[in-house]
Please model this.
Amino acid sequence: MNPAPKILIFLSIFISVMVGCGGPDANSNANAVDASNSSQANNSAKTNVEELALLINVPYESEEVFWKDDAQHKRIVAVLRFPPNEAQRLIADAQKIRPPQKVTINTESWFPPELVAQSDVSGDDTLGGQAYAANAFFQDAYNDGRVIKVDDSDYFVLEMNAK
Model:
């Protein structure tokens, strides 16, 4: 007997079974995985300063950067750590525009562990600091905001908005 008809029957059954497995439940599982990956991606910060520099001006050399952008609300929040000389230069430049103001900010889960731990000590998930003018970081659409030197740390939190 010729094996070709048996192979064709086997292939048609195999294809039918595989197509049947791709029903609505398979799609909803794929969508659930995509949603899970999306929420994980939304909870993690970017760390590429070159990518950040495409959106805002980054005039000071940083040692570390974590940032997130919210395109829907036209907002960027970045946590930067500068070498001491760059931090001093940033503060001096910002003070020329306006004096600092004492502020408290809420921490985010994606902030560096040192800042999250520091906010846990306060008991209310906030950080204290001095807010300075962020004019040096303005570029194109992002032309409003402030840069906050977090108390008792080497970190700055940059909050930028589009007007």
